[in-house]
Design a protein that fits this description.
CATH class: Alpha Beta
Order of helices and strands: EHEEHHEEEHHEHEEEHEHEEHHHEE
Structural class: alpha/beta
Radius of gyration: 19 Å
Strand content: 15-25%
Shape: globular
Number of strands: 15
Largest sheet: 9 strands, mixed
CATH topology: Protocatechuate 4,5-dioxygenase, Chain B
CATH architecture: 3-Layer(aba) Sandwich
Helix content: 25-40%
CATH superfamily: LigB-like
Amino acid sequence: MAEIVYGFGSSHGPLLSTAPEKWDLRAQADMENPAHPFRGEFYNYEELKELRKDENLGAQNQLSVREGRHARNQKHMDALAEKVAEVDPDIIVVVGDDQHEWFQDDIQPTFTVFHGDEVINTALDQEKVKTMQPGLAISMRANHPDVDHAYPVPSALSRAIIEQAIEDEFDIATSSEHPTNEKGLIGVGHAVGFIYRRILHDKPVPVVPILLNTFFPPNQPTPRRCYKFGQSIGRAIQGWNGDKKVAICASGGISHFVIDEDFDNRMLKAMIERDEDAIFNEPNAMFRSGTSETKNWITVAGILSQTSLEMDLLDYVPCYRTEAGTGNAMAFATWT
């Protein structure tokens, strides 16, 4: 039988791949955004700055602070890379989100399990880079290799996860082929690409991509639904007759593009303590924009809830880029 031997979580935000002195490349976009989601409401930049003025967030946006936090981020991603190499799993199940990469407005599944024979992280599209907003091209370069890389998918495990989900009454989408556009095949999205590039260093470890629609209304799953879906995935892995060591990965999160340290600490504490009530009772309106990627972590917490592995938060690093509190809070964790 398959055995879940390890779990890990890593943020994958653009600031992880951006030098600290360039973190404010996205600040102008923050200032122009008319509707920043924060604690269930929406604010323009000036309203957000006024709302949070007593937090003195400008002090956390100094270059010296940025440099220290950037160093912490790199340290923990390096540590995760070393630990995954040490564990040497046969398979990694990656739970991430799709942000109009494979799925567009014509179809946006709540949950998708990929069961093709391989996924491809396509080479960096230089023409697309030229059209991107300031700051985003840096992270795109970090997520894509110089040439296409193909990675195997253990389709038998993917199908076991699909079959268990149906048994557990989850109406999920399945995919066995990459979508295409006028340029050809569309590569696997950033949630998987980042893990392959930064944590696995392109080692072709077989991966099962599981994609959530955390970003786009109206069919985003609730925290409870994500956790329960995770438990279904966990049952499928543990019941699968493949004699493999399986690691589980949460890719993305935590709060962004408005940092909310109270929310982050509340959710991380709930996952560490396996406090299902705290997770289930968190209002769905709190999970908007990039903060919605916290649901990737909640799904992984559900997968690992039925194992003896315990969550250890390696670090929580709020990376501010403006005095209004915009930026990306990073988190890094293991389940061992």
